[in-house]
Specification:
- With 442 residues, the protein is an alpha/beta fold.
- The chain has 2 domains: 152 residues, Rossmann fold (3-Layer(aba) Sandwich), CATH 3.40.50; 276 residues, Alpha/Beta hydrolase fold, catalytic domain (Rossmann fold, 3-Layer(aba) Sandwich).
- Helix content is 38%, strand content 18%.
- The protein contains 13 helices and 15 strands.
- The strands form 3 sheets. It has a 7-stranded mixed beta sheet with strand order 1-2-3-4-5-6-7. Strands 10-9-12-13-14-15 form a 6-stranded parallel beta sheet.
- Helix 7 packs across helix 13 and helix 8 packs across helix 9.
- It is globular.
Length: 442
Amino acid sequence: MAPCDWEEALNGPDSDTAQVMVLDCRRDESGSLPTDTQAMAQKVSAALESWSGQRRFDSSPFLVLTRGATAVSTDEVVHPVGSAIWELVASAQSEHPGRIVLVDTDSADKGLGDLFGLMAIRNMTVTAIASAEPQLAMRGDVLLVPRHNGAGYTPPAATARSAEPTLVRMFRQAIADDRFGDGMEMLLAAAQLRPMFDDHTAGIPKGIGLTGGTPGNSGGDVLPHIVMICTPAFLGGYIQYILLAAHLGAHRRFSVIPLSGYEPDEPLPASLDAAIDSIAKTVLDTVGDDEFVVGGMSGGGNLAHATAARLLGQGNTRLQGLVIFDSFIAPEANDRQMDTARDAVVDTDASIPDLAGFTSDRLTALACWIDLLRRVECLPVECKALVIKCTKPSPAHNLHEWPVETWSTAQTVRTVDAQHVELCSTEAHTTAQLVDQWLSQE
């Protein structure tokens, strides 16, 4: 179940949903711990009453996040506002058994409005729902539940993780030894042993969730339909564009195409041709009769460019343009980005290990798709294109200084004062505005 901000759910369409409603009480509007007990109590009471009183939320659990509401050791200080919220929600739990979950966390994430905050809350949500415990405390990666006698907290009985597969352990060791390239070669060799597809219908992920499906918004109807292609380095999944979708999807049709192979039972493409053909046909299935543009971030931009070339070569007339977010054509530039890819997969694994962390499937898919990316030839396409470049260096490289490359015969270049990874996270609103302006002018 995916988390959904309570305010957005309350103001959203009146339809059934199976999402987990999240009421984040960890900070006030200034970002600090709340200090007004009465105001927060009223907020929580109103939310619980509204949630319990609307049938559209009958299948949606309610997750309340607090910070400092309870102490798991003598070193921790209990904050009065959090403690009041905890008592209020605990009382409501008796009226709605099994439907309300309380989680007190020390996480410093920024909540559902930030990409990494969203990932952290997704991880908390899955962990909390899977634990089947009504009250939890999360301290770093440690999950704790109240003892029945009221004397502190203890790890739940069913939180032990199974031992990691040998392939994952070896890749972690390669990273620790600063041998990321060697680790990728090992993963690529293992990928060749996995099931492969030539027919695109066999390669489309089926599940709707973090790493599957072809989700599209139902709120916007402005065309052209924006279709983003996932980047391999994010370990799969449309969540990488979720903040961009939040800024564009309210008025524009917006969909994301995931890459196959990141989850169990998903095959990998047998060749670059099979990969691009699969993406291209999935795009057409997704947009229906809509006019559309295709785009992507980083390596996703290269795949989007190849997809546009394939569709134009087939005579498609509904493709209206191409959107490239800080992607690179030159092999030298893409080789430099390997350091960024290393950081991306390590950060993702650390942020949401239970949802998109290291597994044998995800790592071998990563190696397969990056190998395919190195074979893509980016010749200029005969369509309009928007190229968005960053102006700040990333920690691993200075590709912000790389000259603008030619992606199409008619391209518009815009810049964002940000690092590479910020285009679809902290600066997603700026990126979305540039895309919207470009599409409105075309």
